[in-house]
Amino acid sequence: MNLIVGMGAMQISRDPRVTIVTYALGSCIGVAIHDPIARVGGLLHYMLPESSTNPEKAAKNPSMFADTGVPLLFQEAYRLGAEKARIRVKVVG
Prior knowledge:
Layout: E1 2-5, E2 9-13, E3 19-22, E4 29-35, E5 40-46, H1 55-60, H2 66-79, E6 88-92
Parallel strand pairs: 1-3
Antiparallel strand pairs: 2-5, 4-5, 4-6
């Protein structure tokens, strides 16, 4: 099963049958994280660096911005059992 991450979106899973993918990264940035012990993975596809440029949009969709989406990505991974010391991070864009 695939979880598709659109622009300004995020997905997290601990189901080993799930593949998390994004398409058309373009000028956006993708942040992928994985904890191999907890078997938790996540992907953030953010569009803009700072939520201060549009606080209203950031409140509705924190995954659209780096400064709100990246912390949210890690918080959700921790909630599913990931640990900071084990997480591997890849950033592309």
